[in-house]
Write a structure and sequence with these properties.
The structure holds two protein chains of two kinds. Chain A is mainly alpha-helical. Chain A has one domain (27-293): MetI-like fold (Orthogonal Bundle), CATH 1.10.3720.10. Helix content of chain A is 72%, strand content 0%. Chain A has helices at residues 2-25, 28-45, 47-50, 88-124, 126-141, 144-155, 159-186, 189-196, 201-209, 214-237, 249-256, 265-292. By secondary structure, chain B is an alpha/beta fold. Helix content of chain B is 31%, strand content 23%. Chain B contains ten helices and twelve strands. Chain B has helices at 52-59, 84-87, 105-116, 121-134, 151-163, 181-198, 209-215, 233-239, 243-250, 291-295, and strands at 4-15, 24-36, 41-45, 67-72, 75-76, 88-91, 169-173, 201-206, 218-223, 226-232, 301-303, 306-308. In chain B, helix 4 crosses helix 5 and helix 5 runs parallel beside helix 6 (181-198). Chain B is globular and about 65 Å long. The chains are: A mainly alpha, B alpha/beta. At the A-B interface, helix 1 and helix 8 of A face helix 3 of B.
């Protein structure tokens, strides 16, 4: 009996997974995005193995060496070196760690906070809802980067504070999304049915309603992941995020600002890294939305 | 002794209130009394919007009544006795909405036990398996999700869930109107079987009189939040006294081509409960209306074994 129920369970899970993959893989962009993202994760994990040089070693004999394919380029420094002789490729590889770390932490904070607050607002309605949603409206009324900048200015510059600031800025989207889903679900009959069965409010919120609201939140979380990376890079560029000599892509851009005309590679490559990462995650998020949205599903 | 006794039950809603506007009062339920004996079926019939479902929600303690008293198993619901939850359970109209799509059937059936008893997981599972077989499904189905079942199967699962706590009263809120005809009969048969096996009392809410004829012992006809006629099912189906009941019955299709059909056509719509007509609420649509109907509202008066609220009963 236990064995058969286990196999049925595994079977339904496999079936759900294959159905998910079917809808996800219909979207070519999403597939490409997924592969690029997996590649990025692997690069971040194995940075120590892949990177030809350490991130912060300065080679005094190789200041602003151009990439290999240009005249004066050297095979030791494939993508060239920056103004103090650090290998660009190695710094970009180590930088992927920071970007993914920022994305994960920011999304985790924003999702936990946002979903909890949204659930409370949607479940209790009334004045609680009023107060929460007006506060969220106020946060949304500020340009997001400006607000993050102000928060970092208050908290003090640094990667941790930048992540907290970005999480606070992204949070209202999750609050609104969760609240809307909760309002949608709370009047469904299965919720009433759980209430008739004697479910207390906390049980209703976390066990009955929440699992049915997570689809759109998942999609928003992927899209916020790229937003977080972008905002962190912007804060880094403005000198409010990760501090030098951290090989964070935005910070690298800021350090290279003065050489923009003399050495194009010091600004171009970090920019391209940010672009590719954000694009890949956004494509993946689109595919995820298509795969998870029941309205787009054909039966 | 009656299992469920409601006296002058009212449920009013405030609607459309703004910052500077006084909300209007919507009387969804306006003084309904009923009495349900163990093992019996009381059918509540009426058009959409007459307050049937509100009655179901008040009786099952989903919403508190605005006024009136409600005794379940002799105990008043106002004291908030948690054991009363186990006494009365509900089955909803839409089997596609009443089962949590993220839970497996075992979880759906086990949930009421988990919330109300100290039984461990194995025992809950055993009872869920047992109940599945009772409603004619197999116990292996417990491992599946609701979307893997048809409408009729889902409705049987909903019935099974409602029965998990051994209630004495089951409120059936249009339990078969979302199902097609052959499945309706199947579900109704299971309901009758369960009633005779477990001695359940049913409060059966429906707009479909051919279903009601099949299952009810007593009938209460509602119009705009009030009962207009009540009595034994046979008496009402064969010779009702209220013009509205007559019209409802004449609108039920009968599968007998030889029968001469005398359809009583009602004109107009159900009036808005926000602005009910003066006097008898039914007078704008009634063929037998007199001046008295327009000025005063009739109350339920005993007639035969039942009661009717009409000045000119037929």
């Amino acid at each position: 009996m236990a064995e058969s129920s286990g196999s049925v369970k595994a079977q339904t899970r496999r079936q759900m997974l294959s159905e998910f993959w079917f809808y996800f893989s219909e979207n070519t962009g999403a597939k490409i995005g997924l592969f690029v993202f997996i590649g990025l994760v692997l690069i971040a994990i194995f940075a120590d193995v892949i990177a030809p040089h350490a991130a912060n070693v300065q080679y005094r004999d190789a200041l602003l060496v151009p990439p290999v394919w240009q005249e004066g380029g050297r095979w030791e420094y494939i993508l060239g070196t920056d103004a103090v002789g650090r290998d660009m490729l190695s710094r970009l590889i180590y930088g992927s760690r920071f970007s993914l770390f920022i994305g994960c932490v920011v999304v985790a904070i924003a999702v936990t906070g946002g979903v909890t607050i949204g659930l409370i607002a949607g479940y209790f309605r009334g004045w609680v809802d009023m107060v929460i949603m007006r506060v969220m409206d106020v946060i949304l009324a500020f340009p997001s980067l400006l607000l993050a900048l102000v928060l970092v200015a208050i908290l003090g510059p640094g990667l941790t504070n930048a992540m907290i600031a970005i999480a606070i800025v992204l949070q209202p989207h999750f609050v609104r999304l969760t609240r809307a889903s909760v309002l949608n679900e709370i009047n469904r009959e299965y919720v009433t049915s759980a209430r008739v069965a004697g479910a207390p409010p906390f049980y209703l919120m976390t066990r009955t309603i929440l699992p049915n609201c997570l689809g759109p939140v998942t999609v928003q979380a992927t899209l916020s992941f790229s937003n977080a990376i972008l905002d962190a890079a912007a804060l880094g560029f403005l000198g409010m995020g990760a501090q030098p000599p951290t090989p964070e892509w935005g910070t690298m851009l800021a350090e290279a600002r003065e050489f923009i005309l003399r050495a194009w590679w010091v600004v171009t490559f970090p920019g391209i890294a940010i672009l590719i990462t954000v694009l890949a995650i956004n494509l993946m998020g689109d595919g995820l939305r298509d795969a998870l949205d029941p309205k787009l599903k054909r039966t | 002794m009656s299992l469920l006794k409601a006296t002058d039950l009212c449920r009013h809603y405030e609607v459309g209130g703004g910052l500077f506007r006084k909300p209007q009062i919507l009387k969804a339920l306006d003084g309904v009394s009923l009495d349900l004996e163990p093992g019996k079926t009381l059918a509540v019939v009426g058009e959409s919007g007459c307050g049937k479902s509100t009655l179901a929600r008040v009786v099952t303690m989903i919403e508190p009544p605005t006024s009136g008293t409600l005794l379940i198993d002799g105990k008043s619901v106002r004291q908030g006795d948690p054991t009363l939850r186990k006494t009365i359970q509900i089955v909803f109209q839409n089997p596609y909405g009443s089962l949590n799509p993220r839970h497996k059937i075992a979880q759906i059936l086990g949930e009421p036990l988990r919330l109300n008893t100290d039984l461990d997981a194995a025992e809950r599972r055993r009872r869920a398996d047992e109940m599945m077989e009772r409603v004619g499904l197999r116990s292996e189905h417990c491992e599946r999700y609701p979307h893997m079942f048809s409408g009729g199967q889902r409705q049987r699962i909903a019935v099974a869930r409602a029965l998990m706590l051994d209630p004495k009263i089951l409120v059936l809120d249009e339990p078969v109107s979302a199902l097609d005809l052959s499945i309706q009969a199947q579900v109704l048969n299971i309901l009758s079987e369960l009633q005779s096996d477990l001695g359940l009392a049913y409060l059966f809410i429906s707009h479909d009189l051919s279903v009601v004829r099949h299952i009810a012992d007593e009938i209460m006809v509602m119009y705009l939040g009030r009962a207009v006629e009540a009595g034994a099912a046979k008496e009402i189906m064969d010779g009702s006294a209220h013009p509205y009941t007559r019209a409802l019955i004449s609108a039920t299709p009968v599968a007998d081509p030889a029968r001469q059909k005398q359809r009583i056509m009602l004109t107009g719509e159900l009036p808005s409960p926000l602005d009910p007509p003066t006097g008898c609420a039914f007078h704008p649509r009634c063929a037998h209306v007199t001046d008295g109907c327009r000025s005063a509202a009739p109350v339920l008066e005993a007639r035969g074994s039942g009661a009717v609220a009409c000045f000119n009963p037929l």
